[in-house]
Automatic annotation (TrEMBL):
Domain of life: Eukaryota
Organism: Pycnonotus jocosus (Red-whiskered bulbul)
Gene Ontology MF: a single term: alpha-N-acetylgalactosaminidase activity
SUBUNIT field: Homodimer.
Alphabetical list of Gene3D superfamilies matching this protein: Aldolase class I, Golgi alpha-mannosidase II
Top-level EC class as recorded in UniProt: hydrolase
Signal peptide positions on this chain: 1-17
Alpha galactosidase A C-terminal domain segment(s): 306-389
Disulfide bond listed as a keyword: yes
Catalytic reaction(s) noted: a neolactoside IV(3)-alpha-GalNAc,IV(2)-alpha-Fuc-nLc4Cer(d18:0) + H2O = a neolactoside IV(2)-alpha-Fuc-nLc4Cer(d18:0) + N-acetyl-alpha-D-galactosamine; a neolactoside IV(3)-alpha-GalNAc,IV(2)-alpha-Fuc-nLc4Cer(d18:1(4E)) + H2O = a neolactoside IV(2)-alpha-Fuc-nLc4Cer(d18:1(4E)) + N-acetyl-alpha-D-galactosamine; a globoside IV3GalNAc-Gb4Cer + H2O = N-acetyl-alpha-D-galactosamine + a globoside Gb4Cer; Cleavage of non-reducing alpha-(1->3)-N-acetylgalactosamine residues from human blood group A and AB mucin glycoproteins, Forssman hapten and blood group A lacto series glycolipids
Protein name: Alpha-galactosidase
UniProt-listed Enzyme Commission number(s): 3.2.1.-
UniProt GO BP: glycolipid catabolic process; glycoside catabolic process; oligosaccharide metabolic process
Amino acid sequence: LALALALPSVALENGLARTPPMGWMSWERFRCNVDCQADPRNCISEQLFFEMADRLAEDGWRELGYEYINIDDCWSAKQRDAAGQLVPDPKRFPSGIKALADYVHARGLKLGIYGDLGIFTCGGYPGTMLEHVKQDAQTFAAWGVDMLKLDGCYSSAEEQAKGYPEMARALNATGRPIVYSCSWPAYQGGLPPKVNYTILAEICNLWRNYDDIQDSWDSVLSIIDWFFTNQDVLQPAAGPGHWNDPDMLIIGNFGLSYEQSRSQMALWTVMAAPLLMSADLRTISPGAKEILQNRLMIQINQDPLGIQGRRIVKEKSHIEVFLRPLSQAASALVFFSRRTDMPFRYTTSLAKLHFPEDAVYEVQDVYIGKIIGTLKTADNFSVIINPSGVVMWHLRPMTLLVQ
């Protein structure tokens, strides 16, 4: 980290990711499936990305802001070419990455790619050693890539402290706007003193802080626990152009119930998290699609102030309350139940949640979409929250009450 401290001039002033990036990513759902003979429909190939780009463009995702199609690990050939350049696997990506980028751009979308700052990627493909940083940045730019996720497998803390800032400079030097997603903090435990979030925000547009998400509710809960237990460190680090990334949305896969899917969407939104789906958009259920395409939810996630929300209440009854301040003095409130028995009636007031005295708010239920009434700060109210579910509100201040 001493190396990074000596680099005050690396500020990532690329003007990108002013709101959390939104899109689709291959990893959680399709992993490193490279057997295109046995499983042509689900293997990591250009065909998969062509088809997902079509879905984003044609099924209403793009208009809502889901614009990135992100290739994760296992896209490249097992060796660099004679010039030392990364090349896509010729069997699985016969048209090349530039052609894929052109296809994606023609649909009004953007292409993301994956690299790893080490000898190998996590999946065992060629990594980006320090001597390849500039070359790989130029390769990605020449291909028309719009986002780079740089992982950290097979690299040392020293190599990471040198390589992550170096890639930021190399990407900026290409002249192409490329959103930069770093896995650096996740490899250093995610917390100070090993991680300096002030420096990180000058180097990366978003960063993975913690473990990879798996297709299970336990995994989602472990991420929620870690992020909100450490919110005093993490929350101030986020803002326009630099975001904490709790990892992909697994809504529409196999591991989450309907209630749990609604909870992941609401809590990622309150966290000002990137909304990167990793489900099969060709077969996604109407219920999952409805959660992911909730307009008010996305509007809250993309709020221009870019303030990450916090957990403000943790009750003995296993009910938790989260608050995210929004522009124009609005707020998002999430009431979350960790209970596993039955719907729970939770009673509180905005005063107890530290809202300003003598104010009146218009309350809109984010999932129902309806305005459910107005509330004075002092009024008691109750919400009924399903097990492992949420109730989410959007609060808009009306006129202040005259004393």
